[in-house]
Write a structure and sequence with these properties.
With 339 residues, the chain is of the alpha/beta class. Helix content is 34%, strand content 18%. The protein starts with a strand and ends with a strand.
Length: 339
């Protein structure tokens, strides 16, 4: 195991020594400070799975693959099997602490609060695939059979509201989300409300679908996945949704690699989602490779990379655990926050 530095990605426009957005992490990225993380290489991490069973088949894993992600049995076994074991231990510890607290308060009738996990990272880094795998693996543990997954896309303001506010071009930036609604949703789940509804977002129409909801019913674990879920509190928002997380992950990679993955995904989508007559992006389906790649690079440079540099990556140091991917999309290092 080695110490992990939370210094900026050398491939990003933020170079070492340059100011990094998000002053709450400034102390953590200075080399003179001891890192709060322990670095574990893939081989050592894989051994930590111990006797944890491998419950997924190749067919099930195939259903989890994101566009262009080389997910296979080895990746799930060596990376996500030990991760599910670790999170299971955290969930058990949280339950025991809850029971001790109930005993202290002499309130034995109170229900256990759901264990809430936040998963953050850039567009195209693979966090949705991570969330889906964990949802399935964690549900196989006897202590946590009911696992729900919600993405923060449902808490984006509708396109009409983004247009009214003049921030349509900043969709995915922190200000494009209804933070109060997201915080209220997670708070109600955490409080044990019988049924809590999250708005439904359609990637096909690129907007919130009126009258459609994702219903969460008292899960053992709630996974909340999204670009900015690890944003810290502020004067304007003194309570952040990240304050309600019991465990959090950041899916990390070099900026240049993520850009390539984003470009590849954009090219693949021309043949799948974009080709649907109802797709918001139908106009891109007939673009040739050169034009489509140039358009993807433009979107990356003007929207996704600035959001990554300004808002997403500065929250990396707030995670419980960081999954570090290499250019082949495989996790090679795990950074675990010290207790």
């Amino acid at each position: 195991m080695a110490e992990y530095s939370t210094a900026p990605d050398p491939a990003s426009p933020v170079s070492a020594g340059a100011p990094v957005p998000g002053t709450d992490t400034q102390a953590l990225i200075r080399p003179e400070y001891t890192s709060p993380f322990t670095e574990i290489d893939r081989a050592e991490w894989a051994r930590l799975a111990g006797e944890t069973p491998m419950p997924l088949t190749e067919q099930e894993i195939d259903a989890f693959r994101g566009l262009g992600e080389p997910l296979d049995l080895a990746e799930v076994s060596e990376v996500y099997r030990p991760l599910s074991r670790l999170i299971n231990q955290y969930a058990i510890a949280a339950r025991e602490m809850h029971q001790r607290t109930r005993g202290f308060l002499q309130r034995d009738g109170e229900r256990q609060s759901p264990f809430v996990i936040g998963i953050a990272g850039s567009v195209a880094v693979g966090k949705s695939t991570v969330a889906r795998i964990l949802r399935d693996l964690l549900a196989r543990w006897p202590e946590t059979p009911r696992v729900e997954l919600v993405t923060t896309d449902g808490f984006l303001y509708p396109n009409a509201e983004l247009h009214r506010r003049g921030i349509s071009a900043r969709k995915g930036f922190p200000e494009s989300y209804d933070r109060r609604a997201l915080l209220r949703f997670v708070s109600q789940v955490k409080a044990g409300v019988d049924e809590v509804c999250a708005p439904h977002y359609s990637h096909l129409v690129y907007d919130i679908v009126p009258g459609e909801f994702t219903v969460v019913r008292q899960p053992d674990i709630l996974i909340v996945e999204g670009l900015n879920v690890l944003q810290p509190p502020s004067m304007q928002h003194p309570l952040a949704v990240s304050d309600l997380f019991d465990f959090s992950l950041y899916v990390d990679a070099r900026t240049s690699d993520i850009q390539q993955w984003y470009r590849n995904r954009f090219l693949h989508l021309r043949e799948s989602a974009f080709s649907n007559p109802d797709s918001y992006f139908r106009r891109f389906a007939t673009l040739d490779d050169e034009v489509a790649a140039a358009l993807a690079d433009e979107y990356w440079a003007n929207i996704n990379e600035p959001n990554l540099i300004e808002n997403i990556r500065p929250t990396r140091a707030r995670a419980t655990l960081v999954l570090r991917k290499e250019a082949d999309h495989r996790v090679q290092k795990v950074l675990l926050r010290k207790l």
